């Protein structure tokens, strides 16, 4: 695919195209791309389905993007839905909707006001926002600062600073909204938790806030726990 | 092969690193996925590592982390050489001026490289290996030529496989062998091994030179 980059592909209405290299791709309506797509800028204002790898510098999804294979974007703003069957490689990712991936997500900065579901691992430097997330593998992030909105889960979480709090904004209006996190293992240097159920939490400094159920805590420097939380055992290592 | 394992807890203590560092290095693929070995213990799941390998790797990361970025460090340890611009189009005259490659090596290898200044990574690494062999003084020029022919033939392979270069001499006749790192090899007692060089370790040094000194043309 080392051909010249064409300037622009515009789909207004419904169309099926082969793919190729473009400066700018805009889908307003419904577009199907049968092969690989390489675009500097990709905008979807309706529905787009890609059957080949998608590579882009910057993408804005205001509707729905379904990627049947790998998707990579240096920068992505998702205001709608992104579904991917392959690996996701998005260094700068902002989610104001929903992102679902069948494999891994590799990023540097993920900011979520919505939800993220992954069948694989999530690797990133920062993972922040008000979110609901389900990660079947490892969430590996240097800095995690999440307010939970809706029930979330991860198999493991690891990083330097991990702060999980209960989202407060909708308490009054949606008191039935369950905002909790289920996770097997959390490891980090500084860990602050609320509304979390975990089998084991290991870290240097651990602060257990309200409504946690932790089977075992292993800490190096300090550990405190809120009286509302249940902690099976806490051991200083 | 039975290897000694170390638990994550003990590793953090022994190597004096934090969870944050360990997870960061894992993210950057400085520590390969296969070294994370999960085992159930009485306190639930725990992660173990092959002790010798991980301690050696962490020592290296600590050594280099001030002068190389984590991404560059990852390239020292992984076989990925395609993407890094420092590893593309390496200039021979630059290597020469930085005294990475000597005139003697150049003369020896020049035969097929006349008037070419830019080298691919495997070509440059072949030169570097010859340089290493010549400067170690254990092989004669004739023997180095023999090794050069061997390396040239395998050029596409040996940069991404963990090879060891063995040179043996028996009754004045020299043999050069490229061997997979984990294979065992036995020689008869009349053969003398004059060189045993791990190309993996050598590549690590070569990449580091390229990354710090810059070999771009």
**Total strands of chain B:** 8
- How much strand of chain B? 15-25%
Largest interface by Cβ-Cβ < 8 Å: A-B, 23 and 14 residues
How far the N terminus sits from the C terminus of chain B, by CA atoms, comes to 45 Å
Shape of chain B: globular
- Physical arrangement of strands within the biggest beta sheet of chain B: 1-3-2
Write the element-wise H/E pattern of chain A from the N-terminal end onward: EEEEEEEEEEEEEEEEEEE
Rg estimate of chain B, integer Å: 20 Å
Largest sheet of chain B: 3 strands, antiparallel
Can you walk me through this structure?
The complex is a heterodimer of chains A (237) and B (217). Chain A is mostly beta strands. Chain A has one domain. Chain A contains no helices and 19 strands. Chain A has strands spanning 6-17, 20-33, 37-44, 47-50, 54-61, 64-67, 71-78, 81-84, 88-89, 92-95, 98-101, 105-106, 109-118, 122-148, 152-166, 181-193, 196-208, 213-225, 230-236. Chain A has a 19-stranded parallel beta sheet that branches. Chain A starts with 5 loop residues before the first strand and ends with a strand. The relative contact order of chain A is 0.07. The mean pLDDT of chain A is 92. Chain B has 217 residues and is α+β, with helices and mostly antiparallel strands. In chain B, strand 6 and strand 7 (173-180) form a beta hairpin. Chain B folds into 2 domains: 5-77, Multidrug-efflux Transporter Regulator, Chain: A, Domain 2, CATH 1.10.1660.10; 85-213, no CATH class. In chain B, helix 6 (103-110) packs across helix 7. Chain B has a 3-stranded antiparallel beta sheet with strand order 1-3-2. In chain B, strands 7-6-8 form a 3-stranded antiparallel beta sheet. Classes of the chains: A mainly beta (237), B alpha+beta (217). Chains A and B meet through strand 14, strand 15, strand 16, strand 17 and strand 18 of A and helix 2 of B.
């Amino acid at each position: 695919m080392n051909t010249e980059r064409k300037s622009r592909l515009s789909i207004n209405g419904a169309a099926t195209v082969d793919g190729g290299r473009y400066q700018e791709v805009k889908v307003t309506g419904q577009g199907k791309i049968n092969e690989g797509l390489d675009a500097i800028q990709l905008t979807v204002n309706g529905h787009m389905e890609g059957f080949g790898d998608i590579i882009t510098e910057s993408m804005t999804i205001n509707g729905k993007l379904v990627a049947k294979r790998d998707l990579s974007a240096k920068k992505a703003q998702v205001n709608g839905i992104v579904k991917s069957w392959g690996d996701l490689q998005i260094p700068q990712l902002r989610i104001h909707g929903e992102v679902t991936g069948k494999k891994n997500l590799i990023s540097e900065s993920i900011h979520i006001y919505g939800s993220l579901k992954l069948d694989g691992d999530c690797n990133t430097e920062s993972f922040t926002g008000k979110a609901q997330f389900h990660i079947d593998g490892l969430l590996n992030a240097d800095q995690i600062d999440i307010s939970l909105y809706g029930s979330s889960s991860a198999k493991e979480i690891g990083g330097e600073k991990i702060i999980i709090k209960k989202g407060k904004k909708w308490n009054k209006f949606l008191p039935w909204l369950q905002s909790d996190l289920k996770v097997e293992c959390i490891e980090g240097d500084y860990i602050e938790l609320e509304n979390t159920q975990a089998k084991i939490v290991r870290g240097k400094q651990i602060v257990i806030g309200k409504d946690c159920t932790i089977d075992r805590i292993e800490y190096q420097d300090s550990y405190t726990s809120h009286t509302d939380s249940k902690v099976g055992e806490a051991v200083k290592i | 092969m039975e290897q000694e394992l170390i638990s994550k807890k003990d590793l953090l203590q022994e190597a004096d690193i934090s969870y944050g560092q360990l997870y960061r290095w894992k993210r950057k693929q400085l520590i390969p996925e296969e070294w994370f070995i999960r085992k159930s213990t009485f306190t639930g799941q725990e992660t173990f590592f092959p002790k010798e390998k991980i301690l050696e790797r962490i020592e290296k990361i600590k050594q280099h982390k001030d002068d190389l970025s984590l991404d560059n460090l990852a390239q020292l340890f992984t076989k990925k050489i395609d993407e890094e611009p420092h590893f593309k189009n390496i200039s021979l005259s630059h290597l020469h001026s930085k005294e990475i490659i000597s005139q003697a090596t150049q003369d020896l290898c020049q035969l097929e490289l006349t008037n070419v200044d830019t080298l691919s990574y495997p070509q440059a690494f072949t030169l570097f290996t010859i340089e290493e062999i010549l400067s170690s003084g254990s092989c004669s020029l004739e023997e180095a030529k023999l090794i050069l022919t061997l390396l040239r033939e395998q050029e596409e392979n040996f940069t991404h496989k963990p090879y060891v270069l063995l040179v043996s001499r028996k009754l004045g006749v020299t043999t050069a062998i490229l061997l997979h790192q984990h294979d065992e090899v036995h020689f008869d007692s009349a053969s003398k091994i004059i060189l045993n060089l791990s190309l993996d370790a050598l590549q690590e040094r070569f990449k580091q030179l390229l990354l710090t000194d810059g070999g771009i043309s």
